[in-house]
Amino acid sequence: MILNSIYVDNLIKTALLEDINYLDTTTDYLIDENQENTAIFLAKNDGVLCGIEIALRVFEILQPSGFEAKVYKHDGDKLVKGEIIAEIRGKTRTLLKGERTALNLIQHMSGIATATNRAVEIISGTKASIADTRKTLPGMRPIQKYAVTIGGGRNHRYNLSDAAMLKDNHIDAGGGIKTAVAKLKAKLGHMIKIELEVRNLDELTQALEANVDVIMLDNMSPELMRQAVEITDGRALLEASGGITDETLREIAETGVDIISMGAITHSVKAFDISLKISD
C-alpha cells in the first residue's frame, strides 16, 4: 500500500491546526526564533516501526527549509528498546511545536504494525492471513491500513465501494441470502466480488448455493469453522471474524480458514512507546 502525499499533508496540517491554533504560548514566548537544536527519536520498547517518514514530514511542513534528518530505522524494521530511530535538527521552535503531532502519528502507526506483526507470527505456518477491517478512526483509515501492511497483514476492502459485502442486516433487509445475492448479481459489474456473512452451517450452505466469492464465518467456534472448511472444500474463500484475540488466533488459523480479520489491530491498539529527546 502506498500513501497519498496529499492526504498525508492534509492530515498533518489538520492535526497541527488543532494543536497550535494560532500560537504556541510556551514555545513562542520562551524560545528565540533563531535558536536551533538536535533531537532524537528513541524507541522505548520492542516492536515494529511504522510512520517515521510521516513524523518527519510534520517538521518539514513547519519548517520548509533548513530542517535536516538522519534516519537510522525505516518502516517495517524491528525495533529494540533503546535504539535511536532518527536524528533531526532544526529550529527549536519547530521541534517543540511538532513534537506531539509527530509522536501521536508514529506511536499510533507503530502500535498497529506491532500488533499486526504479533498476530502474523502467531499464525505462522498455517495457510491463513491476517486482515484488517473498516473499524478505523475517522480520517485516519489510510495510515491505519498502511500500518497493517507494514506489520505483515493484508487490507480488507478499503471502503464500501470496493466490494459488495452482505452482513446480517443486509440479508435480513434484503429478503434472505438467495434473494439478496441475486439482486446484487443482477446489478454488479464483472470486477466486483461478493462476500457474505454467515452465522451457522445452514447459512453457509445457502451461501455456497448462491455462488458468492467470499464467506465470512461470524463468531463461529473453531469446531464449526473446521466443519465449514470441509463443507466448502475450496469453493469459496473463508474468512473468520468476530471476537478474535491473540489467545484464540492459532486455533482458528489451524481450522483451515483462508483469512482472519481483526478489528482490534486498528480500533483498540496500544500506542507504541517512542520519545523525542532534545540532545544538545
Describe this structure in words.
The protein is an alpha/beta fold and 280 residues long. The protein is built from 11 helices and 12 strands. The strands form 3 sheets. Strands 6-11-10-9-8-7 form a 6-stranded parallel beta sheet. It has a 4-stranded antiparallel beta sheet with strand order 3-5-1-12, covered by helices on one side. Strands 2-4 form a two-stranded antiparallel sheet. Helix 9 links the parallel strand 9 and strand 10. It is elongated, with a radius of gyration of 23 Å.
Q: What's the story with the biggest beta sheet?
A: 6 strands, parallel
Number of E strands: 12
Question: Which strands sit side by side, in order, in the main sheet?
Answer: 6-11-10-9-8-7
H-E order:
HHEEHEEEHEHEHHEHEHEHEHE
- Secondary-structure-based class equals alpha/beta
Q: What is the tally of helical segments? A: 11
- How widely separated are the two ends? 37 Å
Summarize the amount of helix as a percent range: 40-55%
The best one-word shape is: elongated
Q: Regions with pLDDT < 50 over 5+ consecutive residues?
A: none
Fraction in beta strands: 15-25%
Q: What value does the average pLDDT take?
A: 97
Rg measurement, Å? 23 Å
